[in-house]
Design brief:
This protein is α+β, with helices and mostly antiparallel strands and 220 residues long. The chain has one domain: Aminopeptidase (3-Layer(aba) Sandwich). It has six helices and eight strands. An eight-stranded mixed sheet has the order 1-2-3-4-5-6-8-7, sandwiched between helices. Helix 5 links the parallel strand 5 and strand 6. It is globular, with a radius of gyration of 16 Å. It starts with 22 loop residues before the first helix and ends in a 17-residue tail after the last strand. The relative contact order is 0.17. It binds coenzyme A.
Length: 220
């Protein structure tokens, strides 16, 4: 998901405040995302206090090179975080912050957004602070996020787009088991030019990992 669904210039209403009742209590992710624990990383809902660390993680040239320009200020990230809560409450989108064990703040994101309301087709995207590249955090976090998409959101097909030139992004998708389906020619405008993007997919039927307790609920 190089083209981030968040577009500050289209945003007309923002509330900045605490996240509503945790979904763990209600069992409904629309009321708040559960924390997903791995052996080295936790994925959890973004908090307003993550704005500073996200700004630091996403604002470097190497992280931003092949994704839509992220907000350019800490306040911009606060508005983005509020937007993620609104979109989650509307059932259209979820955004997990990546928190390495031993850390409080997020060092990256996994985003999942619905593409078709009833068919369980969604797109995902991710970004991680460059000091954690090659650390294994991406792979573990990706498995947690994909499990959540298939077994809690009820998604059956998860798509990703990555600029063909984005060697790390495409390598990360290949390594997690995504299948490249083709190239979307000149489909992503970045850095003053239209870039070709590789289209990748993962199907729930092919996904080997299971979260037994997960409840199926579709994005819509
Ligand atoms: C995408 C991202 C989250 C992946 O995290 P990461 O920690 O770098 O990923 P990993 O190191 O686990 O996996 C990347 C794989 O690509 C491989 N790779 C690196 N450069 C490559 C290149 N030029 N060509 C092909 N493969 C490459 C790596 O060797 C690695 O595979 P390996 O572990 O089997 O050796 C991170 O690189 C990032 O935030 N990038 C910037 C944002 C971005 O581009 N997001 C993707 C949008 S689709």
């Amino acid at each position: 998901m190089e083209r981030m669904p968040y577009q500050p210039h289209l945003q007309t209403f923002v509330t900045i405040g605490p996240v509503s009742a945790p979904g763990e209590r209600t069992g409904d992710w629309r009321f708040g995302l559960p924390a997903l624990d791995g052996s080295r990383v936790t994925l959890r809902e973004l908090r307003m206090s993550d704005a500073q660390s996200l700004f630091a993680a996403m604002s470097t040239e190497e992280v931003g090179r092949f994704i839509s320009p992220p907000p350019t200020t800490v306040e911009g990230f606060e508005r983005f975080i509020a937007w993620t809560h609104q979109q989650r409450a509307a059932g259209r989108y979820v955004c997990f912050g990546i928190v390495p064990h031993g850390f409080e703040a997020t060092v990256g994101l996994f985003q999942i957004r619905t593409l078709e309301s009833d068919l369980g087709v969604a797109e995902w995207g991710f970004a991680l602070a460059s000091e954690f590249w090659g650390s294994g955090l991406f792979e573990e976090g990706a498995r947690l996020a994909i499990d959540f998409a298939f077994h809690t959101l009820g998604i059956h097909r998860l798509e990703a787009r990555a600029a063909v030139r984005n060697g790390r992004g495409n390598g990360a998708l290949r390594k997690i088991g995504a299948v490249q389906e083709g190239v979307l020619r000149r489909s992503f405008f970045r850095g003053g030019e239209y870039l070709d993007q590789a289209l990748w997919s993962i199907l729930r039927d092919d996904w080997p990992y299971q979260t037994p307790a997960a409840s199926a609920r579709k994005l819509h």
